[in-house]
Prior knowledge:
The complex is a heterodimer.
Chain A: E1 10-19, E2 22-32, E3 37-41, H1 48-55, E4 63-68, E5 71-73, H2 78-83, E6 86-89, H3 101-105, H4 121-134, H5 150-163, E7 168-172, H6 180-195, E8 199-203, H7 207-213, E9 216-221, E10 224-229, H8 236-244, E11 263-272, E12 276-284, E13 288-292, H9 299-307, E14 314-319, E15 322-324, H10 328-333, E16 336-339, H11 343-347, H12 354-360, H13 363-366, H14 374-388, H15 404-417, E17 422-426, H16 434-449, E18 453-457, H17 461-467, E19 470-475, E20 478-483, H18 490-497
Parallel strand pairs in A: 3-8, 3-9, 6-7, 7-8, 13-18, 13-19, 16-17, 17-18
Antiparallel strand pairs in A: 1-2, 1-4, 4-5, 9-10, 11-12, 11-14, 14-15, 19-20
Helix pairs in contact in A: 12-14, 12-15, 14-15
Chain B: H1 2-8, H2 14-31, H3 38-63, H4 71-89, H5 92-115, H6 121-140, H7 150-157, E1 159-160, E2 163-164, H8 165-183, H9 185-195, H10 197-202, H11 207-233, H12 244-254, H13 266-285, H14 290-313
Antiparallel strand pairs in B: 1-2
Helix pairs in contact in B: 2-13, 3-8, 3-9, 3-11, 3-12, 3-13, 4-5, 4-6, 4-11, 5-6, 5-11, 7-11, 8-9, 9-11, 12-13, 12-14, 13-14
Amino acid sequence: MERVTVSPLFELRGISKEFPGVKALDNVSFEINAGEVHMLVGENGAGKSTLMKILCGAYRADQGSFFQNGEPVGIHGPTDARKFGIAVIFQDFTLVPYLDIAQNIFLGREFASRLPGLIDRRRIHAEAKRVLDMIGFDIDPRIPVHKLGVAQQQMVEIAKALSQDARILVMDEPTATLSDRETERLFAMIDRLKKKGVAVIYISHRLSEVFALGDRITVLRDGRKIASLLPAETTPDQLVTQMVGRPVDATYTRPSRPTAGVVVLEVKNISGPSGFSDVNLTVRAGEIVGLCGLVGSGRTEVARAIFGADRVTAGEIRLNGERIGHSAEDSARRGMALIPENRKTQGLALARSVGDNIVLAGLRKLFPSGFFVPRRALKAARAIIDKLRIATPTPRRPVATLSGGNQQKVVIGKWLNADARFYIFDEPTRGIDVGAKAEIFRLLDGLVHNGAAILMISSEQIEIVHICDRAYVMRSGRIAGELAHHELTEANIVRLGIHQ
Amino acid sequence: MSTLSLVTAPLARVPGVAIALIALCAVFAVTSPGFATPANITNILTQSTILLLLALPMTLIIMTEGLDLSIGAVLTFASIVLAITAVTTGSPTLAFLAALAVGLFFGLANGVLIAVFDIPPFITTLGTLGIAQGLSLVVTDGQSVVGIPRSIEAIYSGAVVGIPLPVILAALAYALTHTLLYHTHFGTYVFALGGNREALKVAGISVRGMLIRAYIFGGLMAGFAALLMTARLNSAHPTAGIGMEFDAIAAVAVGGTSFERGNGWLLGTLLGVMTVGVLRNGLNLLAVPSSAQVACIGALVIIALFIDGLRGEQ
Lengths: 500, 314
């Protein structure tokens, strides 16, 4: 068969990379074409991030070669990658909070002033304005970045990349923290970039995006390239099978649940300074209640206030009929658990072992005398590890070495060990791959089957629809409406969540 | 325009330190008749100059999420080297260069230990504090160094068109640091060192190099301050700078610079230095012993940060 002789804009061939004990990439080849959105999919730990880090020069490949327009080139560091027009927008932004937008865009490339040694701030601001206009982002470049929301920070990251004449833009789960509206705006911008001949490599866990946006899809699994195909050649089910290596329901379907029991949580007319007012909601034993709305609508704030982590200025919160909301410590003692959105900074002591993290919240119960008995702690941790099937060879392993899905299980295990009866989950599946998602949902299901109650926040409406018995939708710090089970559809959530 | 925005942007937190300064001035103006006189105000300004020279680089260092505990001891040792050089060679210029060399050496040592060998700033500078303080005592055998040329003394007592020379020098140092922080590459990267080091790395900037520079700046400013200190005492004394790092860190903290995320504000440091200066001066006029003054500065830091914390919550 005759091969087409047009060489791709950039090409990686036979890339291998080994970390102590793990073969992160095994002979992976990857092509990037101008004006094309190339979706990179795979479970966590499949090697997507490693491959991208090699592309941008953050890691060096053990083996393999690079070609630009068919010519062999070398990437020995970030400078080389930048020279080839490769820019990465990482999930953890590389922005400096107390510099302004313009200074962030041109960080490391400040324009020199006519005076020796000084920088030309006026020109930095003018050039930044030009770049921001180009991507249609209307904002004053003198605003410090710490005042921006996540979506705006992402726009600044993209502006930063484009200002470096990026021709290959790598985006790692860019919509993970965006609302639907912001996502739409991002997609429109990606479309504009495509027309300008920019190549986009897009890592995603959301299959709908993969098919809506992708011109080509590459699947990685366990460090190997499994397939590289066109969206028309495959289906979501096939793709998931390729990602996990075994057939799995991409969308988890809710098994039947017993009828809801007594009211566990009752929130009456609460308002707070963190940006919510007049919020009412109830959660009963044995049910999972969704709390949805756009990012910034006050969901997380309400959850934190219920837990007692943020101040409430009006209204009351009752758990099992008793007034609470004074302190997080009080709530935890009464059997309430908050599993925060950002488990790395809020839910886990990363450097400590899996075992230590699991027993942390239940210390009082495990050791009523106040003396720590390591053997008892280890035993309790092992029981949870088995119960939740946390993939770790020993409870002594540092949590940081686990995958995202397993870290999430450790957080859940921590509260399970503390005998929590009411759980608030804030984005429980953020950054977790398809296989682990289904397992987390099974876990949630198991909790309510045993009589616990769950309030679950999620930006993925499809998750709310599939998992929850009911849902509240928030808009601008207020409850915009409640959806009973038969009304619970994506369309209804969106309709209530969006400003009229 | 850009400079204006730097002043207006953090205006929301001006009061924390400004309120403290105004309140203290008001209290002392009422309680001690000698406070609100032109002579005393000149006195406060002049006496605050040495502290300002230390607090300026301390602001930058704290912005990098670092700390320099050695700055007072380096000032002492530089002052002693300056005095000895002046006495033996008779050349003020050579003496000043020797003081700067001492500062450069300690700044470089701090920077390399912290940036290259990854030793925490607290530990590193605690160690160099001990070394510099010990060297001062060893070299002088605990005695003052006297007999320095009169031309050095004139640097502290002199004045140009009625403005004391130290105040002019301190104003120049402030202008230099302001330019360094807000109008150079290095200054921009200082914000990033505390705010997001990863951002610097991906921009291809040497994190180590920038950190080392911040500590070198601290050492050099300590050497510069040694000139004013020696001129002020007309001698060098091995315990003269003890506790200066405390005042400097207090002034930076009172001025609203945060120990996290590269959130710093140079004008706040100036106000913080003035606040500490006014407090010390006022307590002196009220005949409060200097040991109790330290406790008052400690209380000031806590109150100022407490107020800022309350305001931040709202």
